[in-house]
Amino acid sequence: MAIQVQHISSIILYAGSFALAVLFAALAQVFARPAKPALLSPSFTQAERPHRVFWMLAFLVPFLLSAFRWKVGTDYPTYISLYEAINSISTPEQLWQQILEVEPLYVLMNVLVKLVFNNPLPIFFFSSLLLLSFLFRAVEDYHGKISVTLAVFVFLTLMFSTTLNIMRQMIAVSITFYAARHLFQKKYDTAALWMFLALMFHYSAIVLLPFWLFRGPQRYARNARIAMFAALALMFVLGSVFGSIFSGIRALYTDEGGEGGTLKIGLMLLRLPIIVPILLFRKQLIAHDERNKFWIMLAVFEVLFSYLGYILDVLNRLSLYFAVSWIVLLPALVRSMPTRGAQYRMGAYVIAVCVGLWIFNTAINNYGDVLPYQTIFGARIPGM
User: Fold this and answer.
1) Three-state helix/strand/coil letters over the chain
2) Does 290 have pLDDT greater than 90?
3) What is the pLDDT of residue 1?
4) 340-358 and 148-158 helices cross at what angle (nearest 10)?
5) What is the pTM (predicted TM-score) of this model?
6) What confidence category does residue 305 fall into, taking pLDDT thresholds of 50, 70 and 90?
7) What's the CA gap between 150 and 328, in Å, rounded?
8) Rounded alpha-carbon distances, angstroms, from residue 244 to 8, 304, 309, 352
């Protein structure tokens, strides 16, 4: 395995863009508080927010990369085909069948894009706008407990490439990530509305329901805990013993059948540098912020779903709903360290792990076909 020469310019573009986004996030963090801080030291007070202009610039960098790409990502042609299929519907029966296969709000988005632009490319613009807006807004909610600079860095290196592929699901992931704030505030009706919105973009968001109930009203929590572990045990047994029976399901998420099927996150061992320190320092993490108890639970299930995903590919997809916990927990690991020196050492470790995983997954193995990168402005696009 080696970095391909023809990909070097694209790798430099990604790295430079990530560095610029992190710089803007750092400036948003620095200018949000009265005293000049170190990037990994305690962040904002609860009354403060990241500097609006710099935070917007940090958002714009990955947004522009995502919104104006051309044929970047395994799923890119799939979304073009979906646009064409949705807008070729001529009967109510066809519409109903399409809604069963592709969620209602995504169908609506495609129809509106057809009516207004008569071109599939704005789909990538609006999908990127939705998923990144919810994600950056979710990160803001942790401004008093983590370095938002490091949170942006973790997202860009560990998850951004995934957003260039399974856009529909990542919209749902980002909505549920944002909506968790309502669970923590015990606004359960509002949280339920956000869950419904996520489901209207990707039905797979339902996988989070028992975890939300676990965090929800006390009368549901015990039953949710039982349901979660019973379902996990059942999936493990069925996946291990009867994996071949589910070949039909797997076909929906493989090269010949589905959106993002070739996307592989990597070997199981690559998750150890993430999950091991989270488990080792779980008590510190929870003492630092009680919300981390919920995110630690999701991080553990991310590993379990990913393991089962090597038997049933669909479960690997579902693990993304749990992987967003990294965006909170890895920066929280740094902030929860008892001394400034320990914070810097943990910060260096987190950065090294994220860079190493990005190099392995993207620069070397090109998971998700995000290399080479090109924009719509420099490409020959049919019909334009």
Assistant:
1) CCCCHHHHHHHHHHHHHHHHHHHHHHHHHHCCCCCCCCCCCCCCCCCCCCCHHHHHHHHHHHHHHHHCECCCCCCHHHHHHHHHHHCCCCCHHHHHHHHHHCCHHHHHHHHHHHHHCCCCCHHHHHHHHHHHHHHHHHHHCCCCCCCHHHHHHHHHHHCHHHHCCCHHHHHHHHHHHHHHHHHHCCCHHHHHHHHHHHHCCCHHHHHHHHHHHHHCCHHHHHHHHHHHHHHHHHHHHHHHHCHHHHHHHHHCCCCCCCCCCCCCCCCHHHHHHHHHHHHHCHHHHHHHCCCHHHHHHHHHHHHHHHHHHCCCHHHHHHCHHHHCHHHHHHHHHHHHCCCHHHHHHHHHHHHHHHHHHHHHHHHHCCCCCCCCCCECCCCCCCCC
2) yes
3) 58
4) 20
5) 0.85
6) confident
7) 9
8) 40, 19, 13, 38
For the beta carbon of residue 251, count every other beta carbon within 10 angstroms. 14
Burial string for 165-201 (b: 16+ CB within 10 Å, else e) reads: bbbbbbbbbbbbbbbbbbbeeeebeebbebbebbbbb
- Tokens 């009203």 label which residue? 217
What pLDDT, in 10s, does the model give residues 224-263? 555 555 555 555 554 444 444 444 444 434 443 444 443 4
Diameter of the chain measured on Cα atoms: 66
Q: Residue 105 region, left (φ>0) first, then alpha (ψ -120 to 50), else beta?
A: alpha
Residues comprising the chain, all counted? 384
CA distances from 136 to 148, 165, 185 (A): 9, 19, 19
Question: How far is 305 from 327, CA to CA, in rounded Å?
Answer: 18
pLDDT at 329 over 60: yes
Helix axes of 122-140 and 148-158: crossing angle, nearest 10 degrees:
140
Look up residue 286 and give its amino acid.
Answer: I
Reference 66, options 142, 153, 171; nearest CA is 171
Cβ neighbours, 10 Å, residue 9: 12
| Residue corresponding to tokens 């070949």 | 247
